[in-house]
Amino acid sequence: MNELSPTSTEPKAQHWFTIGRLSDIPRRGARQVLLPRGPIAVFRTQTDEVYAIDDNCPHKGGPLSQGIVHDGAVTCPLHNWVIDLQTGDAMGADQGCVRTYEVRKDADGLVSVSLSGGSGKTE
Amino acid sequence: MTIRKKLVVIGNGMAPGRALERLLEKAPDAYEITIFNAEPRVNYDRIMLSPVLSGEKSYEDILIHDDAWYAEHGLTLKKGCKATSIDREKKQVTGADGSVVDYDKLLIATGSSPFIIPIPGKDLDGVLTYRDLDDVEAMLAAAKSGGSAVVIGGGLLGLEAAAGLTERGMDVTVLHLMPTLMERQLDTAAGYLLERAIEARGIKVRTAANTHEILGEERVEGVRLDDGTELPADIVVMAVGIRPNGDLARDAGLEVNRGIVVDDAMQTSDPDILAVGECVEHRGTAYGLVAPLYEMAAVVADRLQDGSATYTGSVTSTRLKVTGIDLFSAGDFAEGKDREEIVLRDATNGVYKRLVIQEDKLIGIVLYGDTKDGAWFFQLMREGASIEEMRETLIFGQNYAGGSPLDPTAAVAALPDDAEICGCNGVCKSKIVGAITEHGLTSLDEVRARTKASASCGSCTGLVEQLMAFTLGDGFVPDAVQPMCGCTDLSHDDVRRLIVAKELKSIPAVMQELEWRTSCGCAKCRPALNFYLVADWPGEYEDDYQSRYINERVHANIQKDGTYSVVPRMWGGMTSSQELRAIADVVDKFGIPSVKVTGGQRIDLLGVPKENLPAVWADLNAAGMVSGHAYAKGLRTVKTCVGTDWCRFGTQDSTGLGVKIEKMMWGSWTPHKVKMAVSGCPRNCAEATCKDIGVICVDSGYELHVGGAAGMHIKGTEVMCSVETEAEALEYCAAVVQLYREQGRYLERIYKWMDRVGLDAIREQVVEDEAKRTALFEKFLYSQRFAQKDPWAERVAGKDAHEFAPMNRIAMREAAE
Ligand SMILES: Cc1cc2nc3c(=O)[nH]c(=O)nc-3n(C[C@H](O)[C@H](O)[C@H](O)COP(=O)(O)OP(=O)(O)OC[C@H]3O[C@@H](n4cnc5c(N)ncnc54)[C@H](O)[C@@H]3O)c2cc1C
Ligand code: SF4
Ligand code: SF4
Ligand code: FES
To answer: Do A32 and B520 touch (CB under 8 A)?
Structure first.
């Protein structure tokens, strides 16, 4: 589909991919962004914070993008693990972690994600 | 058989209710009992009228004795029949309906009436009092259209009425004659704090306000005060005090002062007539609270069995039952030369405590903002215990006194055996502990049922729970009421009731009004709230898809690999070559890996990627098929056998009925899934007796079954009833489902709901009560008007498109990899 290239104005170390508009994601919901190595899940909370994490539950690989989003967390649709969207850590008694990505929103409501790593959060 | 003596009771309030209960416990057959009750109903908990007014409870919740109780004990209750005269010569009571009943013993319990201030306008429409359920209903009716209310009287009742009417959306002003609120129970400092707390709820308070006149032609329009101020009002509630009902006794020639005079044996001036409750005057005092009345009732019960118990008067304490305001007072707290006081004020936390001491004894208590030591102080006061030793730390409460540890369980452990725990019902510690050990009680409900402790106003619930913890140790599992989830302390039932009572129509409204601890709930409460709102406000509530579990959000079943399965509806399990051909084409076109026949008599297409769902549905829709809701907490399938169409044993058209039921019920949302079946004869080929609802056709009609399950638990159904016609079968099935929609807790299957409420209760509402059944049926059909839209067709038409496509694809390999 639309093949994207890193936005050129960014510092070389970090590449930001514009993935769409904030309004493309429902509040307390998520959308998938497909990557060759598997999808990532981009979440929008009630208060419009945006987070991106691998769409792959640390338990048995459930699609976290399909879960129920509450405050800054998502509950996996398969067996109800709760994942903290900011850190990617499983909450409560469960042990596990999913990779997070840095996300930013610009003034026009465009959302971009950096795939280079880190446990980032929206600014 | 001996001839039983005749006991007649006039009035059916809480006091005689308690006396009869005690009497029947000990001597169930001693009397043939007739009760005259001017109110057209059974005995209910009058002190809980305020929660009914505010919407926190329903009338059913506050019943003390239901109809079954009177029947079980063989009592004749003449509802709505006032006793009009007593003939002491003939020993007869005459009722308003002309009936005449003989007595050997007579118990007068006429209670009291609200005092009406004799001012112009007092008889206008819309001038109400606050005494019984009719008053509450009148207030609720008035509150429906909003507007403003003036409550005359800033005592306990007036403030509870004001708080309730405010909750119901009225603009309320309280007029109080004295300079401080509840001046009989509070000192000025606590009265001031109370006034601020009341005002913080949006209630206007005018103290030192004397009402001059109620304005209006036919209906109330306003109130004029002595100083000329006029306040608009759509209703006026008078709550300025009560007057014991002594007229009937006076007319019969009994001695009556302020109330009907009784001695320590609760006997009136006629040895065959006793009196109990608010209508009596004992040693010059007439009481207006339940605790002393219950003490009197115990004596009455004993005397009716020729016992010798005596009543010597009571010390009373008061609590205000306005949610969020903690206030306790008891005894005498006027200042005096020979009195000293200990005061603690904590302004930041809004706490005020004052203890009045005379000759080393506690004689008055006022607690505001922190009332947890109320019971302990009250105990010290009633015992007349010397507080000399602990004077220094007394005000800090029991935890500090005598170096007792700060652990609340240890605090109740330290209470003496005769310490009163439940003031309303006069239950002491030893009685509760005794009942727990003797009967092996483990839940709060059981303790309430056995001892009545915390069963009335409920403010001692915490203490009772601590006593249970102390008695049972680790065996005590607190919170008989499971909170819905970690976001709230309220149970499913509470939340549901409050949704209706407070007319909460959105998830944010529920969370705001019911004080959710999280900003937007969790994966447990959100789907539950969404269902409750869908079920309670059909046509008004807008379904919140983000609060639905993924399967219901995308109308397909998620599989372990993240693909979905698709199950089209096959009405009653019937299909056709055309449908099967369309399914085959869809399977080929989309390369669907698995096709399986389900246990619910239809076909499951497994392994469809989410993006393909709308296209798959479009093709199925084109062949006339709709969603089978195989993913829903809602009606799943109606299995049928071939019945009279083909089977030599068939007694009725089971297939036809199954199809009709499914056409009526599809699309409905329920607390958990609902599976149904119709078998054409008792051979039961459709396995109807392990379904949530099953129908077995017989020669004479249809046997309706409920409460089966064949999941993790296997359970056969129970027969609810038999009906003759197909139309009835349809109506009854819909009525049960509607009742389940209204009462079931989210994720509670029908069989669990039935275990909880009892098959009898279901039968009573669906089978025996025709009006209720019709109403349930109509409500079900009404909500189906909004529910029966094929969700697949809607999504084929473009609804929720974002669900079925990725937000984006990034095709290049990113640098970091
Ligand atoms: C809104 C409200 C809140 C309250 N809150 C509290 C509280 O928090 N704590 C507390 O301790 N107390 C409270 N009370 C007071 C408590 O409810 C009463 O003290 C208690 O109910 C009185 O019981 P009773 O049986 O004496 O009389 P009632 O309950 O008044 O019963 C008398 C009954 O007799 C009937 N009757 C009268 N005359 C006749 C007749 N001639 N023939 C047949 N029937 C007749 C009446 O219709 C009535 O049903 C409250 C009262 C109200 C109204
Ligand atoms: S249940 Fe009875 S009517 Fe139906 S197929 Fe079986 S034997 Fe025939
Ligand atoms: S029985 Fe168990 S494994 Fe089989 S479909 Fe049902 S839940 Fe899955
Ligand atoms: S795969 Fe997410 S909880 Fe099991």
So the answer is: no
B361: containing domain:
326-400
Do B642 and B785 belong together in one domain? yes
What is the model's pLDDT at position B722?
96
DSSP E strand stretches across B614-707:
635-640, 674-679, 693-698, 701-706
Q: With an 8 Å Cβ cutoff, are B519 and A71 in contact?
A: yes
The last residue of one of the domains, among B206, B221, B240, is B240
pLDDT band at B681 (very low <50, low <70, confident <90, very high): very high
- B541 residue type, one letter: Y
Task: Report yes or no: B329 and B289 within 8 Å, Cβ to Cβ.
Answer: no
- Of B522, B558, B807, which has the smallest distance from its Cβ to A24's Cβ? B807
Q: Which two tokens stand for residue B682?
A: 């008792």
How far does residue B565's CA lie from ligand 3's centre (Å)? 13
In a domain, B589, yes or no: no
Closest ligand (CA of A66): 4
Query: CA B129, B132, B134, B137: dihedral to nearest 10 degrees?
Result: 80
Q: Nearest residue CA, atom 4 of ligand 2?
A: B680
B459 and B525 inside one domain: no
State the complex-level ipTM: 0.82
Find the residues whose C-beta lies inside 6 A of ligand 1: B 10-16, 36-39, 46-47, 49-50, 82-83, 109-112, 130-131, 157, 160, 245, 248, 277-278, 288-291, 293, 321, 424, 457
CB atoms within 10 A of CB B227: 10
CATH number of the structural domain spanning residue B205: 3.50.50.60
Identify whether the C-beta of residue A75 lies closer than 8 Å to the C-beta of residue A67. Answer: yes
Tell me: the pLDDT tens digits for B682-740? Answer: 999 999 999 999 999 999 999 999 999 987 778 999 999 999 999 999 999 999 999 99
What is the average pLDDT across B328-340? 78
Task: Answer whether residue A33 is part of any domain.
Answer: yes
| Contact flag A115-B560 (C-beta cutoff 8 Å) | no
Residue A9 inside a domain? The answer is no
Domain shared by B137 and B235, yes or no: yes
Give B68: exposed, middle or buried? Use CB within 10 Å, 0-12, 13-18, 19+: exposed
Chain A residue nearest residue B610, CA to CA:
A66
**Which of B240, B263, B290 finishes a domain?**
B240
pTM above 0.80, yes or no: no
Per-residue pLDDT tens for B477-488?
Answer: 665 567 888 888
pLDDT above 50: residue A2: no
CB contact under 8 A, A70 and B812: no
Instruction: Please check whether residue A120 lies inside any domain of the structure.
Output: no
